[in-house]
């Protein structure tokens, strides 16, 4: 058997393997570059925590994050901006950040009114107005541990609350639901678009496991007890715990509908030529 024949056999067998390795390496590099998985560690570590940590790190860098998120105004004092330790507390620093690339549908529509003339084969169309219709977002959320389950629950409660008006009691009673801001993929795609949330759906599968998470708080009762450690006595404050158990699916889907809204003042500053050149990013037009 000649050396040349053996070299041909090795090349024939190794080529597909090396090709697969190179493709896997390229895919891994693309995922790392896009921020879907961390640059160190395994694919199993690229869950919700990695997404949140990477985004928080991105806030402190000069390069903006491309991840899609929904937030309140920084000056707002409602919902998670006023929450000091309740269910919405996990959203305090980030708002709702989508841990996986969501499916987003944005429809730009120009409306024309048909003028149907008698004894004519074709209608005439008069321009009426243009609009950006409801933005629909669908994304998976995972909960691999109690911390992630708390984050998912916070997102659910945020969207539940953001579709309701301030009603009944409270100093803001009578106000409509709050305006939120949608951003992601860089300034030229979703430049913190002001929106109202028009609908929210949470799909909970029946064929997955559920993670139990304790929600609540503990406080000191004022009473103390003493324990001994060697010759030392230590005073311990007794605490009263008030927790309830909630179960969150390890994977579920959130669907959010958002309608872009703009003030009358900002609409008077619209310029189609500037908009077409991407020069109205500060006005949040899409």
Topology:
Elements lengths: L2 H32 L13 H12 L9 E3 L24 E2 L5 E3 L2 E8 L8 E9 L2 E8 L3 H17 L17 E5 L5 E14 L6 E20 L2 E18 L1 E10 L3 H4 L4 H5 L10
Antiparallel strand pairs: 1-2, 1-7, 3-6, 4-5, 6-11, 7-8, 8-11, 9-10
Indicate the structural class: alpha+beta
Q: How much helical structure, as a percent, in the residues?
A: 10-25%
Morphology: elongated
| Rg, alpha carbons | 27 Å
Largest sheet: 7 strands, antiparallel
How many β-strand runs? Answer: 11
Q: Count the helices. How many?
A: 5
Rounded mean pLDDT is 77
Strand content: 25-35%
Unreliable residue runs: 2-7, 9-64
Strand order of the largest sheet: 2-1-7-8-11-6-3
Description:
- The chain has five helices and eleven strands.
- It has 286 residues and is an alpha+beta fold.
- The chain has a domain at 66-215 and 242-283.
- It is elongated, with a radius of gyration of 27 Å.
Provide a compact summary of the structure.
The chain is of the alpha+beta class. It has helices spanning 3-34, 48-59, 146-162, 264-267, 272-276, and strands at 69-71, 96-97, 103-105, 108-115, 124-132, 135-142, 180-184, 190-203, 210-229, 232-249, 251-260. The radius of gyration is 27 Å and the shape is elongated.
